[in-house]
Design goal:
Length: 138
């Protein structure tokens, strides 16, 4: 496959960011009822470990992010939360609410969160040929 470049002449880069416990849990880090799939009852596990340093790391990651690539579930969680957060209370809110968001889903009919686009068809191909994406994090 040929490598494509964005409008700045740079090759696109997909960076995956996730919260993961040492025992491999990658589910529901923020809220107790965020994701109960499969009987998961430990939602909100990361809240007790969130500190000033973690906030700095997350702010730094968002500052370097040009767009988000989200699956349906993460999109629904983010879209229900971030539009309701005041940017003065949380600097990440302004960035997340204003940046382009690309949502990969086979079940959503549309997306309403500002600057969101629903990816349909061959999502892998769309990502390979996109000239607008410099860095994507989720």
């Amino acid at each position: 496959m040929a490598s494509e470049t964005n409008a700045n002449g740079e090759t696109g880069k997909l960076v995956v960011g996730t919260f993961l416990t040492l025992d491999g849990v990658m589910q529901a880090p923020r809220g107790p009822d965020e994701d109960r799939d499969g009987g998961f009852d430990h939602g909100g596990w990361s809240v007790n470990y969130w500190d000033e340093k973690m906030g700095e790391v997350m702010d730094g990651q968002f500052a370097e992010t040009d767009a988000l690539l989200l699956g349906r579930k993460t999109y629904e969680i983010f879209a229900a939360h971030w539009p309701n957060v005041d940017a003065e209370d949380d600097p990440a809110a302004e960035k997340l609410n204003s940046m382009p968001k690309y949502v990969a889903s086979r079940t959503l009919d549309g997306v309403e969160w500002s600057n969101s686009s629903l990816l349909t068809g061959d999502v892998r191909r769309l990502l390979l040929i996109s000239r607008r994406i410099k860095v994507i994090r989720f």
